[in-house]
Amino acid sequence: KKPITSKNLKDVLEVSDNTASTFLKKAAKYIEQDADGNLTIKDNHVFLKQRISNIQSKKHRYVRLYIESYRRLYKRNTNKKYIGYVLEMIGSLQISQNAFCRNPREEDPVEAQYMTMKEFCEKVGSNAGNPSRMKSELSSLRFVDRDGNEAPAVLFSEKDDIFIHPGIIFNGWKYYVETI
Predict the structure, then answer these.
(1) According to the model, what pLDDT value does residue 8 have?
(2) Mean predicted confidence (pLDDT) in 112-123
(3) In terms of CB atoms within 10 Å, which end of the chain has fewer, N or C?
């Protein structure tokens, strides 16, 4: 494995110089450069690198993220800003339902408090006055799975509850999208 540096970041992420530079500026509170020029995580609470079986306490919430699925999402869609909003909100994801919630740690789907489009907009700091535009942009995002099947990356229920394609965060072979 080769360490990630500010010089090779654009190649690792497969993005432009400008995008890599913007990423470094926005992620500055989480990433630092060591004496050898390698990028490292500042706060060990941002990412836990250990076996899931070692995380016994319920106070540690974890999601296994897959870079490959993010790359496919990024390459398939032209509006990168809205991909960023979806990824920014992963912390508000109720895992068993793949839904953005006000109480994402709630394990009982019946007790889940689904986030409204207005709340989603306020959390990401965009389109707060126009949630229908945000919904339209999110609806246009497409996800391509490992087998090349294309599906919406973001789905909405009849009540406008917001769901994401499970392949974005759970990139195994046995996931499926249930009709909402």
Answers:
(1) 86
(2) 92
(3) N
Q: How far from 139 is each of 115, 128, 151, 161, CA to CA, in Å?
A: 16, 17, 11, 12
> What is this structure's pTM?
0.62
First and final CA of the chain: distance in angstroms? 41
Closest CA to 85 of 52, 119, 57, 54: 119
The residue type at 19: T
Q: What DSSP letter does each residue of the chain carry, written as one string?
A: -PPPBTTTHHHHHT--HHHHHHHHHHTTTTEEE-TTSBEEES-TTT---S-GGG---TT-------HHHHHHHHHH-S-HHHHHHHHHGGGGEETTTTEEBSSTT---GGG--BPPHHHHHHHHTS-TT-HHHHHHHHHH-EEE-TTS-EEESEEE-TT--EEE-GGGT--SSS------
d(CA 162, CA 40) in angstroms, rounded, equals: 33
- Is residue 42 within 8 Å of residue 30, measured between CB atoms? yes
